[in-house]
C-alpha cells in the first residue's frame, strides 16, 4: 500500500508541492535571514517613471507591495508559519477528538443522543466569530506592546483553534465509532472476553484509519480557510502589529504569514490587485495540494476516486430528495 501511495501522481504532486514550499521557506531564512529585496521604482520604455507598488515582472514574478518589497519573498517567509500551523492544528484536533469520541460512543452511550443534540448547536455559530472573540485579547497588540512572546502567542492560538472544533469533531467520530461498534464481529470479540480498550485498538482503529486520514486533510483545509477569515478581520497568526502613532500605518502581520498578507493589503484589491491576490493564490494552491493528497490516498488504498464518489453520493441524494418531493406533491393532488 505504501509503495503504491508514493507512486500515485495525485498524492505525489500535492506532497511535493507542500514540501517544496516549506523547505523553500526555511532555506530562505537560513540563506537570507528573512531579508526581503525591494524595488522602489522602474523606468518604462517611454522614459517615464513608475513607483511602488510595481506589477509582476520577470525579476519580480508577483510584483511588489506599496513599500516596494518583493511579494514572493514575503510569501516564502510566511509559508512555514501558515502551512505548519494548519498541519499542527489539524493533527491536534483529530488526536484530541478521537478519544473523546470513543468515550461518547462507548461509555456515554445512553446519553449520546443528548450530547449530539447539544453539540449540533455549534454548527450554527460562525467559527471565525468565536475565534475572533477568544483570540483578539491575545493577538491584537496593545498600546504598551505585547506581554507575551511570539511562540507563546502561537501556542495559545493553536490551542484555541484546536479546542473550538473538538466538540463537533468528537461528535462526528463518536457516531462513526458507534456505527462500527454495532457490527457483529465486535459483538463476537466482546463475547470472547475482549475489553473495550482492546476492541478500540485492535478492531475499531484499523477500520477508521482511512477515515481519520481524510478528516485530517479536511481539517487542514478548514484551518486555512479560517486563517483567511481571521486575516480579513485583521487578526493575524502570531499577532497583529498595531501602530499607535498620530498618523498610523494599517495593522500588519508580525510573522508575514499569509492571512496577514491578505488582511493588511485588501485595500489594494482594485488599485494593485496582485498584492492581496498573491497570498490568496497560494492559499488556494495549498488547499488544492491537500485535496490532491486526499484523492491520491483514497485511490491508492481503496481503488476509487474520493471526489468522484462524493459527487456521485451528493447527486444521488439530491435526486432521491427531488423524487420524494414529487411523490409528496402527487399525494397532495390526489387528496
Automatic annotation (TrEMBL):
It comes from the Bacteria. The chain crosses the membrane at residues 12-31, 81-108, 115-134, 154-173, 224-247, 267-290. Residues 83-294 form the ABC transmembrane type-1 domain. CDD domains: TM_PBP2. It is found in: Cell membrane; Membrane. GO terms for biological process: transmembrane transport. The keyword Transmembrane applies. Coiled coil: none annotated. InterPro entries: MetI-like (IPR000515), MetI-like_sf (IPR035906). GO terms for cellular component: plasma membrane. Keywords: Membrane, Transmembrane, Transmembrane helix, Transport. It is a multi-pass membrane protein. Its main location: membrane. The keyword Cell membrane does not apply. PANTHER family: OLIGOPEPTIDE ABC TRANSPORTER, PERMEASE PROTEIN, OPPC IN A BINDING PROTEIN-DEPENDENT TRANSPORT SYSTEM. Belongs to the binding-protein-dependent transport system permease family. This is Peptide ABC transporter permease.
Amino acid at each position: 500500500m505504501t509503495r503504491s501511495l508514493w507512486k500515485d501522481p495525485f498524492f505525489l504532486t500535492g506532497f511535493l508541492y507542500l514540501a517544496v514550499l516549506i523547505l523553500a521557506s526555511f532555506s530562505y531564512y537560513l540563506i537570507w535571514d528573512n531579508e526581503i529585496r525591494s524595488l522602489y521604482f522602474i523606468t518604462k520604455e517611454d522614459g517615464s517613471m513608475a513607483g511602488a507598488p510595481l506589477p509582476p515582472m520577470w525579476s519580480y514574478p508577483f510584483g511588489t507591495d506599496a513599500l516596494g518589497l518583493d511579494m514572493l519573498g514575503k510569501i516564502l517567509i510566511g509559508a512555514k508559519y501558515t502551512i505548519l500551523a494548519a498541519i499542527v492544528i489539524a493533527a491536534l484536533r483529530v488526536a484530541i477528538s478521537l478519544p473523546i469520541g470513543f468515550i461518547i460512543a462507548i461509555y456515554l452511550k445512553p446519553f449520546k443522543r443528548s450530547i449530539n443534540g447539544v453539540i449540533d448547536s455549534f454548527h450554527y455559530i460562525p467559527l471565525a466569530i468565536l475565534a475572533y472573540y477568544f483570540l483578539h485579547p491575545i493577538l491584537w497588540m496593545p498600546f504598551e506592546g505585547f506581554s507575551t512572546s511570539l511562540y507563546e502567542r502561537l501556542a495559545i492560538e493553536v490551542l484555541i483553534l484546536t479546542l473550538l472544533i473538538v466538540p463537533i469533531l468528537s461528535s462526528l467520530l463518536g457516531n462513526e465509532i458507534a456505527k462500527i461498534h454495532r457490527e457483529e464481529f465486535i459483538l463476537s470479540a466482546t463475547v470472547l472476553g475482549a475489553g473495550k480498550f482492546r476492541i478500540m485498538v485492535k478492531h475499531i482503529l484499523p477500520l477508521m484509519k482511512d477515515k481519520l486520514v481524510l478528516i485530517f486533510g479536511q481539517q487542514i483545509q478548514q484551518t486555512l480557510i479560517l486563517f483567511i477569515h481571521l486575516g480579513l478581520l485583521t487578526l493575524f497568526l502570531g499577532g497583529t502589529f498595531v501602530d499607535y502613532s498620530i498618523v498610523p500605518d494599517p495593522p500588519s502581520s508580525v510573522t508575514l504569514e499569509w492571512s496577514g498578507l491578505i488582511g493588511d493589503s485588501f485595500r489594494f484589491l482594485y488599485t494593485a490587485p496582485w498584492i492581496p491576490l498573491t497570498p490568496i493564490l497560494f492559499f488556494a494552491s495549498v488547499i488544492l495540494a491537500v485535496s490532491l493528497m486526499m484523492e491520491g490516498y483514497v485511490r491508492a488504498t481503496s481503488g476509487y476516486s474520493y471526489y468522484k464518489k462524493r459527487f456521485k453520493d451528493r447527486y444521488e441524494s439530491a435526486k432521491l430528495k427531488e423524487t420524494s418531493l414529487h411523490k409528496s406533491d402527487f399525494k397532495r393532488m390526489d387528496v
